[in-house]
Each structure stands twice: as structure tokens, then as C-alpha cells.
């Protein structure tokens, strides 16, 4: 599957339906035969923004340009952009730009962080990294993990806080393995996650492996991951390079390999001396795969 072209098609679809009430992850995942879970991550790797943020920025960019560059009445712009009333449009516009539409027309303060032009193919092809990491294809044995649940988004990563909470609770876990290797598991959800007005938040589990489940602390969760086929990507890098590796996995390796994604958890494994701020931490990403059909 060509994940890069999936994002190109997604952007094309967004631009053609920019002011429609849409759930883009459902539409694209159906058309491209990719789960919503993987699509969210693929989109972020290419565009460097969540689907919701991209759509919101594109909508308000088009609205702002029309306000500044035309003499169209504000109410006409509001109705054309699917707002139910002048008041609703003004309220949303002011919340986003800090000015009413009329104030913006007289004195537009163009904050580049709030505006984005349509991404073209030329820009897209330079957004992923051509790394040279070859994975091991392994049958990963069953994993019994106990840890702390948290929530994070790709654009506002707060894994550091989740790990701090987990470390304060780790003494409650019985029968931990001696290596004390740490894990982050990105949980796939079948909920209808709506990304139009907010960042998509992932549930994540930060955990350690246990040999045998004796008890599960009430503050924590047990996750048993069945044995399965995985591509294991190992790097010794700063945590900040993690998404660079994800970009390589989705847009380079999967395209050229004999494997494709299968349903399952994305698992990150960290060495016992791992720190989010270390420059030489060992990280292994386990990606569930199957042989291409």
C-alpha cells in the first residue's frame, strides 16, 4: 500500500469538501482500505499536523483571504462556509483570530501559525525522511504488560508526564521482570473520533513486562498482547527522532518491503536507562505486519 499517495488523496478530498460537515478519517479509511488508527498516524507523519488542525487552519485561511480580498458581505461568507448565522460565524472567527471579521478586514493581523496554504505535491514529497533502517522480522512472544493509561496527541506529546505518573506507581506491581524494560503501547480505538475541531487524542499505556499476573493494582491496567509477526526497528537516538523513524517506516520501508500493516498494537520498547531527554537511548518499535497479498 502506498501510504504517501493515501495522504495526497486525503488532502485532495479535504480541499474538495473543505466546508462540508465531514469525518475525513472515515471517508479516507474506507476508500483506501486503511484503519482510522493507522491513517491518523500516516497523515501526521507527512503533513506534520493532525487532520483536525490541518482542516481548521485551511478553513480559516480561506475565510480570512476572502474577507481581506473581496467586498463580499460577512453574512454571505458565513452562510457560504456553512455557518448557521452571522453570530455563530463571528464567534468562531474571533475565537480563532482574536478579532471579529469586520476588525480583521480593516486591519488583518496575519499570524503564520494560524494560517496554512494548500499543500501541493512538491511540498509533500520532501516531508518524509529517507533513513536506512532495516528491521528484524520476528515472531514476538506473548507480552503481559501492566502499566498506567494516559492520553496524548501527536502534536502535543505529553508522554513525559504519563511516564512520571507511572514511575510513581511502579512499586505497586508484583512480579516485574528483572530487566525492567519500559513499553509504550499505542491503543487502537474503534470510537468515532471527530477531528474537525480538536486534536485527535490517543490512549496510550506505559508499562513494564510481568512474568506472571499476580494482582493488578487498581490504579493500573493489564494488557496481554498475543504472539504475532512484527517488524522490529531498532535505533539509538534521541526521543525527538522517533517520528522521523515512523515517517521512514510508513513511507519508505513499507512501500519497498514484502510486508504490509496488519491490525495490532504499535509497541515502543525502551532500554532500562531510557530518558525522554537522552541523546543515546535505545528504542525499538514493533510494527504488526503480514506478508503482502
Please provide a brief summary of the model:
The chain contains ten helices and nine strands.
Written account of the structure:
Helix content is 37%, strand content 22%. By secondary structure, it is α+β, with helices and mostly antiparallel strands. Strands 1, 2, 3, 4, 5, 6, 7, 8 and 9 form a nine-stranded antiparallel beta sheet that branches. α1 crosses α3 (36-47) and α5 (74-80) crosses α6. The radius of gyration is 22 Å and the shape is elongated. The chain starts with a helix and ends with a strand. The model is unreliable at 190-199 (pLDDT under 50).
Q: Regions with pLDDT < 50 over 5+ consecutive residues?
A: 190-199
Order of helices and strands: HHHHHHHHEEHEEEEHEEE
Rounded Rg? 22 Å
What percent of residues adopt helix (DSSP H or I)? 25-40%
Distance N to C terminus = 10 Å
Secondary structure category: alpha+beta
How many DSSP helices? 10
The general outline is: elongated
Record field, number of beta strands:
9
Rounded mean pLDDT score:
81
The share of residues in extended strands comes to 15-25%
**What's the main sheet like?**
9 strands, antiparallel
Helix/strand layout:
Blueprint: H1 3-16, H2 24-32, H3 36-47, H4 51-69, H5 74-80, H6 86-97, H7 101-106, H8 121-124, E1 136-140, E2 143-153, H9 159-169, E3 182-187, E4 201-209, E5 221-225, E6 228-237, H10 242-256, E7 259-261, E8 266-270, E9 281-291
Antiparallel strand pairs: 1-6, 2-4, 2-5, 3-4, 3-8, 6-9, 7-9, 8-9
Amino acid at each position: 500500500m502506498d501510504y504517501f499517495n493515501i495522504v495526497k488523496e486525503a488532502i485532495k478530498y479535504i480541499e474538495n469538501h473543505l466546508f462540508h460537515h465531514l469525518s475525513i478519517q472515515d471517508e479516507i479509511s474506507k476508500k483506501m482500505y486503511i484503519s482510522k488508527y493507522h491513517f491518523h498516524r500516516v497523515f501526521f507523519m507527512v503533513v506534520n499536523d493532525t487532520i483536525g488542525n490541518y482542516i481548521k487552519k485551511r478553513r480559516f485561511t480561506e475565510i480570512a483571504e476572502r474577507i481581506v480580498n473581496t467586498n463580499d458581505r460577512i453574512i454571505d461568507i458565513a452562510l457560504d462556509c456553512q455557518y448557521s448565522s452571522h453570530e455563530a460565524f463571528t464567534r468562531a472567527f474571533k475565537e480563532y483570530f482574536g478579532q471579529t471579521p469586520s476588525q480583521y478586514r480593516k486591519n488583518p493581523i496575519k499570524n503564520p501559525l494560524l494560517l496554512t496554504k494548500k499543500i501541493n505535491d512538491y511540498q509533500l514529497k520532501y516531508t518524509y525522511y529517507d533513513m536506512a533502517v532495516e528491521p528484524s522480522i520476528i515472531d514476538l512472544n506473548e507480552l503481559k504488560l501492566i502499566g498506567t493509561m494516559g492520553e496524548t496527541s501527536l502534536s502535543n506529546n505529553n508522554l513525559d508526564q504519563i511516564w512520571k505518573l507511572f514511575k510513581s506507581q511502579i512499586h505497586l506491581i508484583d512480579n516485574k521482570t528483572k530487566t525492567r524494560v519500559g513499553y509504550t503501547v499505542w491503543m487502537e480505538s474503534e470510537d468515532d473520533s471527530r477531528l474537525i475541531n480538536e486534536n485527535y487524542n490517543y490512549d496510550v499505556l506505559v508499562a513494564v513486562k510481568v512474568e506472571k499476573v499476580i494482582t493488578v493494582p487498581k490504579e493500573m491496567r493489564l494488557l496481554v498482547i498475543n504472539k504475532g509477526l512484527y517488524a522490529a526497528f531498532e535505533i539509538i537516538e534521541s526521543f525527538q527522532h522517533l517520528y522521523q523513524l515512523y515517517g521512514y517506516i510508513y513511507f519508505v520501508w513499507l512501500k519497498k518491503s514484502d510486508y504490509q500493516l496488519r491490525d495490532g498494537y504499535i509497541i515502543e520498547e525502551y532500554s532500562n536507562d531510557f530518558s525522554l531527554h537522552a541523546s543515546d537511548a535505545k528504542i525499538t518499535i514493533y510494527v504488526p505486519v503480514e506478508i503482502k497479498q
